[in-house]
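Hi F.,

I've been meaning to write this up properly since the lab meeting, where we talked about keeping a consistent format for the predictions we share between groups. The idea is simple: the sequence comes first, exactly as it goes in, then the structure tokens exactly as they come out, then a line or two of notes. No screenshots and no reformatting. I'm using this chain as the first example so we have something concrete to point to.
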Amino acid sequence: MTLDFEPKRVRLPIRFGPKTLFKFSFSGAVCSTHLTDMAEPVSLPAQQADVVVFGSMPVSFGPKKTLSIQHGRLYYSPKRFPRYLVDLESDYETYLNSFSSKTRSTMKRKVRKFQEAAGEREIFKEYKNPNELLDFYLTAGELSKRTYQEKVIGTGLPKGEEFKQEMLRLGAEDNVRAYTLHLDGKTVAYLYSPAKRGILYYDFLGYDPDFAHLSPGSVLQWLAIQSIFNERKFRIYDFEEGEGQHKQLFATSRTECANLLVFTPTPKSILFILLDVLLLKSTEAVLAVIRKLNARALVRRLYR
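Output, unedited:
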């Protein structure tokens, strides 16, 4: 099928575990077609690029090997992962019924516990238009500094002017939703979800670790999805790549996907692949030792 590609400068990271060590820059073409709209055979763009990036391709559509040569190009698929989605084209009642009675009861109890802790104050706030989003940017930005997501794994709310202007542009187009959770006048969790072609993406979520006992991330996600269903504007909520109990809990479907990078062979592209393979293997070896020693909790504390 014909796919949509966006020409852009691509900066591919070399990581050890969750930490980015440095990045390689390539002229690229990034596939912007969502995985639910893909079908075989998958095509490359007509215009030549140093690298063609498929961020999430169903594994059944991609190459079977991690590295292969096809038609004079290097096909590199470094990892596979689940992609969790929420079908928003049903209704909220149907969505609730997709949970077990135990899970529904647990989530309602968590929301009730949080509301009781907050008293009669409003706990949930939604942001859509540019003026509201400026308020969100300041409020969530301050909270992000204290979160595990920013301090440990580097996925806090971005601070740069480029992100801010893109957020405001999306707000002017009614293509972003942001949410915060509040307790005693403090913002304790935030969620930022941009939209494209009717699909809302789970981009950034963070919460204050001092309130972890109240499950603020889960409570905020629960209230946000209810609001999204009631709005009836979007067709899919996409939790993006990666495993996670949070994603498993709230999703209605799971698709096995892979990253695929199609390189024009150059010394730089070959070096990137070699380094990426080396660091991925090193990470796997370290994780295997940690699992064997049953030391994940200790390592997490030291890492923080």
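Notes:
Residues 90-234 form a domain with the Aminopeptidase fold (CATH 3.40.630.30).
The first strand starts at residue 5 and ends at 16.

If this format works for you, I'll send the rest the same way.

G.
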